[in-house]
Amino acid sequence: GAGVSQSPSNKVTEKGKDVELRCDPISGHTALYWYRQSLGQGLEFLIYFQGNSAPDKSGLPSDRFSAERTGGSVSTLTIQRTQQEDSAVYLCASSSRDYTGELFFGEGSRLTVL
Amino acid sequence: GNSVTQMEGPVTLSEEAFLTINCTYTATGYPSLFWYVQYPGEGLQLLLKATKADDKGSNKGFEATYRKETTSFHLEKGSVQVSDSAVYFCALNSGYSTLTFGKGTMLLVSP
Prior knowledge:
Largest sheet of chain B: 6 strands, mixed
Order of helices and strands of chain A: EEEEEEEEEEE
Helix content of chain A: under 10%
Distance between the termini of chain A: 33 Å
Mean pLDDT of chain A: 91
Largest interface: A-B, 28 and 23 residues
Number of helices of chain B: 0
Oligomer: heterodimer
Low-confidence stretches of chain B: none
Shape of chain B: globular
Largest sheet of chain A: 7 strands, mixed
Number of strands of chain B: 12
Radius of gyration of chain B: 13 Å
Helix content of chain B: under 10%
Strand content of chain B: over 45%
Low-confidence stretches of chain A: none
Order of helices and strands of chain B: EEEEEEEEEEEE
Distance between the termini of chain B: 41 Å
């Protein structure tokens, strides 16, 4: 596609449910990033993929959070047993080359946990 | 560790006013510095960047100069427009795999 695509754009769930957020990066981009944007907290790094491997998952806040990437393309961020503090906008970005800082962001998935 | 500090917003200006958004950083090594912008309802996009000391990044009338001696990368624009209303994020990349972002500064420009 022309840009980074994320789905769903909005997700409302009940506390304790599992959610999956999907990211489809720009075709050919090898690096993929997940960030979380919370009100007043800026952008918090979650995990980085190079191809299908995740050399840096240091930002995942707890073991309820996991992510995978298949075929060097689509990535899924899974949050198990959601809590109210997980409410945020989850942003995905991709990059054609590593370590340049030029990231292309999707519009995000807004998660609300009731 | 790496960190970025931005002035808190919102910054409220009238059209054609001069804009400065302050950004300072803490980092090991020699980071590249970035400004990203998030317009309402859109994803973040790169506005400008500088990769070494004394470099000036510029785009769409915005400028920022990489000042190593003051560890700063302040964003400036001589005459803002209503369409510049957005959230601006300062960020750094010190050669590792991720960007470290500031908390963002909202800019509101009124006619």
